[in-house]
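Lab notebook: predicted structure, single chain.

Context: the supervisor wants predicted structures on file for every construct in the current expression panel, including those that have not yet been purified. This is the next one on the list. No modifications to the sequence; it matches the entry in the shared construct table.
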Amino acid sequence: MKTIEVKKPSGYFTQIGPAHPALKEPVMFNLDVEGERIIKADFAPGMSHRGIEWMGLRRNCIQVIYLAERICGICGITHSISFVRAVEQIAQIQVPVRAHYIRSIVGELERIHSHLLWAGVAAHELGFDSAFYLAWRVRENVMDLVEYLTGNRVHYAMIQIGGVRRDITREQFPRIEESMKFFDNAYDQLARVFLDDTTVQMRCRDCGVLTYEEARQLCPVGPTARASGIKKDVRVDHPYAGYADLDIEYMTPDRLTGEVRGDVYDRIVVRLLEVKQSIALVRQLLEQMPDGPLLAIPKPAVLLAKLKGAAGEAVGRHEAPRGEVMHYVRLEAGKDEPVSWKVKASSYSNYLSWIPMMEGEQIADIPIIAASIDPCISCTDRVALVQDGNRRVLTKAELHRLSVEKTRRIQASLSAR
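Prediction complete. Output recorded below exactly as produced.
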């Protein structure tokens, strides 16, 4: 871990957020500073509450898919796949292989979309708006492509329990390949702008460092972990959908630069490498896609009847653009709606890495450091505790006690059957 030697406390405390021009979503940073240098950093999320999980417990599982997709506007396919994977495990529904491939194609297109969006935001935080416009111009192509395939630019509504709702036909393959060629050419330009520009290097090299050991201790996921040399990817470690049939490897910065520093620059490198990797994966999926049905149970009424008879609990996982997402679902026989639905978004795992990244850095670097983990506040902030009409802050010990008590209640209810 990095150590910061300070002879005496600075005595100067400042806050950034929750509303700030550099923050795209509400989160508050609490900072102890000495001049322009950050001595101690902490953060406070929890500024938003939409009640999505609460609403999901009052709808049947098919209706929950549309709520899950709206947890995040950028990685909607991530949450819908994670949710249906959990339900499919409980109900023992076998997804057709062709549907698995289509899920993977849309998931990789969403990864390209998300990383390009992030690249634009990161460039804007650096004050490099020419690169911002370039990245988002390229992003328009992938949004046009997913609209061509699904009918929607953002929320695709492709996923159904037991498969997918729409096919990707042979007639659509040329349009997809045309976009992949476009991204190949755009990648070279983006890599040159983001990686070779002297200003970007000066702002991002050795800034916001998360060392390998710090990453091991804090357990981040996705590009945040891989940029620090942690080889962790659900698609590789626990292949699902079409990934078991693909040539896929961990993307770490040393594959391009020959070294791992774990700084903001390395997090840019990893995301650019993953854009190139997603292009190759889409091509592999198109080449290997088998024929077959799209849904295990085509009729919604029959599917709902099967789900009403299902009971048990499961966790659905998906490698989102930001890292591993998990959905816990519990069903009880005779009920249309889930009894329990809990979502763990990637940003839950990545938030704590902000602290070592910021401590020792300059206040002016906070925007790009905060953006470098690609935080999704809307994915994370879903509940707020209100007791007796008064809000209160839960300590770590209280949260642990409550989670243990809930686990014991669930175990007792299951053993009582």
